[in-house]
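Title: Prediction job returns without error message
Component: structure pipeline
Severity: low
Priority: P3
Assignee: unassigned

Description:
Job completed but the reporter wants confirmation the result is attached to the right record. Sequence as submitted:
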Amino acid sequence: MDVNQIKQLIKIVEKSDIADFSIQEGDLRIKISKNSKNQIVTNYPVLQTGATTPAPQAEPVSPVVASATPEPTTEADLGSKNLHEIKSPIVGTFYRAPAPDADPYIQVGDQVAEGSVLCIVEAMKLMNEIESDVGGKVVKILVENGTPVEYNQPLFLVERS
């Protein structure tokens, strides 16, 4: 993992509501935590075997500023409209299409079947296809293309058929 990937992880955690995040890749373990003063704290303990590679150095990070986010939809609101939220199963970057020059998987108003691919969430250079867990009509796309998403964040509203 290079310094740019670490910086990208810090930015994702900084922009999200995630309090703690850790990842291990080989002998490298990274833990990113937000403390009570809304600052990012990073730890880079490295177990060195054989080769001597210096641990990546983190740049100072400014305090996190809370961003305005839409109020989460309550289950009562969803039930009264027969709507279902499709949520992100992972932290990553949301993409509506399989490639930058390709058409989006779905549009608002499209009918989807259970198991239909709705989008991609990229995490650590892996493209993860997100499938619909219900059949119905796409009522709203809740995330902009190319933006970071967090675990369990609502991505789509689908009116069940």
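Comment from assignee: result matches the submitted record. The chain has two domains: 1-68, 75-160.
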